[in-house]
Design a protein that fits this description.
Strands 2-1-7-5-6 form a five-stranded mixed β-sheet, covered by helices on one side. A two-stranded antiparallel ribbon has the order 3-4. The chain has one domain (2-85): Beta-grasp domain (Ubiquitin-like (UB roll), Roll). The mean pLDDT is 94. It is an alpha+beta fold. It has two helices and seven strands, in the order E-E-H-H-E-E-E-E-E. The radius of gyration is 12 Å and the shape is globular. A hairpin with a 2-residue loop joins strand 5 (56-60) and strand 6.
Amino acid sequence: MAVKIQIPTPLRPHAGNLASVEVIAITVGEALGELCKLHPAMEQRLFDNGQLRRFVNIFINDEDMRYLENLATPVKDGDEVAIIPAVAGG
């Protein structure tokens, strides 16, 4: 299944300065894994010891994956996966 992954501006230098990447995957975790294979520098930005970093939010077609099946959430052809880094401040 062709899935489009939206890359946020702060992470684009680690993904060849691309705004999005299309990968073939059947789950969100597999899609992110394919992204990391294409752009290895993304892995350390997204994962820590194989676990998605706490401050990285992933949305599938505007739905937070934490309220679905997390990295096991199925994706289908044409879905969009957005990587949204958490923002904090005061």
